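Quick start: what a row looks like.
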Amino acid sequence: MHKGKSLGSTFATLLVFATPLIAQFGGPPLPESARPAQSLIREGKLDEALALYQKALADSPDSLPLHSAAGNLLDLMGQAAEAHAQFARAIELATSPDAKSQQQRAMAMSYAFAGDCQNTVKYEQMVIAYWVTREKEDPANAAYQEGEMADEAARVCIDNGDLDSAAKWYKAGHDYGLKQPDITPVLADLWEFRWEHAAARIAARRGNKAEAQGHIAAAKAILDKDDQLAHGSGRGESQSQFMPYLTGYVALYLGDYKGALVDLQKASQNDPFYQCLLGQTYEKIGEKDKATECYRKAAGTTAHNPPAAFARPFARKKLGAPE
């Protein structure tokens, strides 16, 4: 059964730059003949990988995993319309509601690569609708996944400057998550923490320092009272690692570049989005070479999720790559 592992969420797990494309949201494996494309992608040989997928599709035109993998790759190459067409075909080929929801989620990420908040929301809502159908049989997981998908949509919106939509969907994610039957105190705290974390970032983007600092304090207070949420290893736990990202993000958008640098250097260096934040910070303090190195790292991601959807196009543009 598809359990909806959320690599896209800010809070799900640390991201590996070269996550295999077909593994982003589950699904059947690629045909044997197309699997070498994954190595080519990791080596940066995207044109060769695409040629391999195209050859495989000529032989297997109704292969869902091939269409999905080709869509992922086309997103990395900045070919949005072509990627959307591949995911549309993958959705058509899906033979179960579960499989269809996986491809709808992949389409949401395809629109994220194009910087399109509203179409990302549209397809994430389709995934949420799938999880609503699972509420009777799998109520705890359904509520969690509904919250994850709403947060994923919100993440794309905030990254692309649609702060009102981001606030709406982060609040929806909070509310979906909290409707889980018999929710544990740790998971209840998780959804409160995620909301405070998001609200602080939105306030900073709006230039409201006092409001941002208030939400940071609330987020910290949740972790201070819930050591399991802060440092545990269960689902949604180990959230303390995301505080340097939060404080660094807020500092950057409020103009405290030295403070941003200190905090962002404590955040994960394996996340391409964090590398973009670091790059912007280095630019602000006049360290162009260090900024360029951060953008090079971010541009190398081959993931297909919200951090990569922002980071790869943004970093490539900073490096002067053709759009």
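That is the whole record. Residues 184-258 form one domain. The two ends are 38 Å apart (CA to CA).
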